[in-house]
Amino acid sequence: MLRRLGRRGHPEPQDQSTRPTVPPPRTGPPLPEWPDVSHTERMASVEFRVDDEPHIVVDTDVCRNCVTRECMRACPADLFVPTADGGVAFYHDQCFECGVCAVVCPCPGAISWSYPQGGYGVVLRWG
């Protein structure tokens, strides 16, 4: 017997009563209110504990052959800068540690990303 596939390729339930139900509304204490602040104000509260050893290493030899430069477009802190020789320079001292550069990079081995050592990195402080 063939079963019809529903959304995302999963079989649809045979019986409508077996469909998942919507969870009840949240009960309990109210959620905290976040202050309405601008991005600039929020980023002014960020502390960067910079380690001498960078947590991201960029292989500029690999980057010279890259035509898309996805890391430069994707980095929310604009820390990737083209160099005169066709490579890419990376400045780790203001990095948010999101890792999006390593995810979008199309060149294997160009970006080596790891978490900063304990006690170093970005510290988000607000409230």
TrEMBL record:
Region Disordered: start-end pairs: 1-38
Cross-referenced InterPro entries: 4Fe4S_Fe-S-bd (IPR017896), 4Fe4S_Fe_S_CS (IPR017900), Fd_FixX (IPR012206)
Domain 4Fe-4S ferredoxin-type: 54-85, 86-116
Keyword set, alphabetical order: Electron transport, Iron, Iron-sulfur, Metal-binding, Transport
Keyword Ion transport: no
Keyword Transferase (UniProt): no
Biased composition (Pro residues): 21-33
Protein name as it appears in the record: 4Fe-4S dicluster domain-containing protein
Annotated organism of origin: Lipingzhangella rawalii
Lineage: Bacteria, Bacillati, Actinomycetota, Actinomycetes, Streptosporangiales
